[in-house]
Design brief:
This protein has 27 helices and two strands. It is mainly α. It has a two-stranded antiparallel ribbon. Helix 2 packs antiparallel against helix 3 and helix 3 packs antiparallel against helix 5. The chain is elongated, with a radius of gyration of 46 Å. About 20% of the residues are buried.
């Protein structure tokens, strides 16, 4: 991330460092070394390339050691090109160095802050760091030849340590367990303050019960405080390390901001020297020399050399010492994150016994597990066959056949019942009413329409003398015909229902297969998310959350400019529209994170990525003032907030 930013921030100056030969340049035969050095410097800036180019330049001190070298010679042109490229690489290397150190300090500070905010994380960190703390205690005992007395663990000693309300005195063992206490006062606060109250005489049972209750509550409070006391010390240790890392980050960020403010001066110096190489002028470049002096003041604060080349050597040596001092400071104050082995040793320690226990339990229950696996396999097979494949097959059959068969009653059964009713009615009308063929045809049409008026008239005459009609008449026949008519009506009603169901048969088929499809979708999504290694859209929720936090941090930096502990800005400077060096450096940290996110998580060759990078480039412009950058931040919220889900990450929709 840091090298990408350094390359991006200085890429506009690269054309000014290239070799440019004028028509008046006289070729020379001894410039091969400079040519090879200039070709080597075309790569990315590093400490090794800068050191090698400085070593070559020391052998070609043009104006002092080689006075006979002409100003329009090819060797001098190559010397100036290598000199420009060396200064450019030194500047890019310094930007990369301070950006890398401040970024690492910020990441470590955020890690300690995450540990500090969670009691469970503090307890895990205390367990993970317990071996190193125990090692320091053993080293202390061995170095000072101290003896641990068993009387310190007697109940009376523990009770005195527990009930003592005075501040806890720090002993060497406590300092060895928590080294940050070495720089604290000689004592720390007790577990919990004693609440002063009025001493009441137990004149009654109520007063005695109240006194007992207060004593019990106080004892419980002291026990809880005693158990949480190591967690409190561990939390304070994390907090102190976070603050120290933030201090380191601010110091490096302030230097980084000052370095970024020197880019216009470097551009002027490189441009002047580049134009001089084109015209063949041999005049010393005062702008480039002024940049070197300012560069030395910002990075090292000491200018013991006045010439340009020795000053470059001094700066390179200062950068080497700076890296050593920086690492020594982090190691001395124990500000780095714990090693991966330190964080993983509890899991590595508990994993083999747990695996052995699980293997033993699985082997002992192998028969039960085999039956369980067989039941699971059968359940899955029945689910797919009975609830997924068969319903899908029925859906395809319904679509292909169109549902010709009935669901409740068949068409042939309805027609048979209607034909039977017609024959029964026509026979009764022929015998009782003596209908001819014409009348029978008319009656047949009426029966098809559901009209049995002729049978009802016979029935009305028969019920006038029911007993006689039942024995000698047609009462029973007419009643049975009406029963058949009721059966036909029932068949026709069922046929109507059947027709309605047939019209919705495809819907019912999809409803039958929908639960199985829903189960498959949910289970497949869960397993896919569990086994997938691909991040979510636009980098996933964690990456988008980090970008949202970076956007919030940028806006807060522009609104409330931070200050170092040794700085005392006045109110007028605080509310001015200019951006100080510290704020610029901290902005660059967040902007470098945004740029890295855009290059790795946003789709390539998309309007989203190109527009996002353009906004970041606008925020990186040192010529823009604070109010203008705040307007850019507002534009980014309006343009990308909804697409990247910043409003949802913030906890709700916004109206901006």
């Amino acid at each position: 991330m840091t090298s990408n930013f350094a390359v991006h921030y200085t890429e506009r100056l690269i054309p000014l460092t290239r070799l440019q030969l004028s028509t008046q340049t006289k070729p020379t035969s001894d410039g091969g070394t400079l040519k090879s050095t200039h070709a080597m410097l075309q790569g990315s800036p590093s400490k090794a390339t800068v050191q090698e180019s400085v070593d070559f330049l020391c052998t070609f001190s043009v104006r002092e050691d080689k006075p006979g070298l002409q100003s329009d010679s090819e060797e001098l042109v190559f010397y100036n090109a290598v000199f420009r490229k060396t200064i450019f690489n030194l500047y890019a290397f310094a930007v990369d160095l301070y950006l890398e150190e401040s970024s690492a300090a910020q990441l470590d500070a955020e890690w300690w802050a995450d540990i500090e905010q969670s009691t469970w994380s503090v307890a895990s960190y205390l367990l993970q760091s317990f071996p190193s703390r125990l090692r320091r205690v053993l080293q202390l005992i061995q170095a000072q030849k101290m003896s641990v007395r068993l009387s310190a663990f007697y109940p009376s000693s523990v009770a005195r340590f527990y009930w003592d309300a005075a501040p806890i005195r720090l002993n060497p063992f406590t300092v060895a367990l928590f080294p940050y206490l070495r720089n604290q006062s000689c004592s720390v606060a007790s577990f919990s303050p004693i609440t002063a109250g009025k001493s009441t005489r137990p004149d009654s049972l109520v007063a005695l019960a109240e006194k007992i209750r207060v004593g019990v509550m106080y004892s419980i409070q002291r026990v809880i405080s005693f158990l949480l006391f190591p967690l409190r010390l561990a939390r304070e240790e994390c907090q102190l390390r976070r603050k120290e890392l933030e201090k380191v980050r601010n110091e490096r960020a302030e230097v980084l901001g000052k370095l970024l403010e020197l880019r216009p001066l470097l551009a002027n110096g490189l441009e002047a020297d580049f134009n001089g190489s084109i015209t063949g002028s041999s005049v010393d470049n005062q702008a480039l020399t002024a940049f070197l002096f300012e560069f030395a003041v910002v990075t090292s604060g000491d200018i013991s050399q006045k010439a340009s080349l020795p000053l470059i050597e001094q700066l390179l040596g200062a950068f080497k010492n700076h890296g050593i001092i920086h690492n020594a400071y982090l190691d001395a104050h124990d500000l780095r994150r714990p090693s991966r082995l330190t964080l993983l040793w509890p899991r590595l320690f508990l994993l083999p016994p747990l695996m052995l226990y699980c293997a033993k339990h699985i082997y002992a229950s192998r028969a039960t597990l085999a039956d369980l696996m067989l039941d699971v396999v059968n359940t899955v097979q029945n689910f797919f066959k009975g609830w997924l494949f068969d319903p899908i097959k029925d859906v395809l059959t319904t679509i292909r056949a169109g549902g010709e068969d009935g669901v409740i009653v068949r068409r042939e059964a309805v027609a048979a019942d209607l034909d039977s009713l017609e024959r029964m009615t026509l026979a009764l009308a022929r015998e009782k009413l003596s209908y001819d063929s014409t009348q029978l045809e008319a009656l047949s049409r009426q029966i098809r329409q559901g009209d049995l008026t002729a049978v009802l008239k016979i029935y009305e005459e028969d019920i006038k003398n029911p007993v006689k009609s039942a024995i000698t008449g047609t009462l029973l026949r007419s009643m049975l015909i009406q029963v058949q008519k009721a059966k036909v009506d029932l068949d026709q009603a069922l046929a109507g229902i059947d027709k309605l169901l047939k019209s919705q048969e495809l819907t019912f088929a999809f409803v039958g297969v929908a639960p199985a499809l829903a189960v498959i979708y949910v289970a497949g999504g869960f397993l896919g998310g569990l086994l997938s290694i691909r991040p979510g859209r636009y980098g996933g929720k964690l990456r988008k959350t980090s970008v949202w936090l970076a956007m919030r941090r940028i806006e807060r930096l522009l609104l409330f400019q931070p200050k170092l502990s040794h700085h005392h800005h006045d109110t007028e400077n605080l509310h001015s529209d200019t951006i100080p060096a510290l704020t610029t450096g901290l902005l660059v940290l967040s902007l470098a994170h945004l740029r890295e996110y855009a290059l790795t998580s946003l789709p390539a060759r998309s309007r989203l990525r190109e527009g996002f990078l353009e906004d970041i480039e606008d925020l990186e412009d040192p010529g823009l003032r604070r109010s203008e950058k705040l307007r850019i931040i507002d534009r980014m919220w309006k343009s990308w907030g909804k697409e990247l889900g910043w409003y949802d990450l913030a906890g709700g929709r916004s109206t901006r």
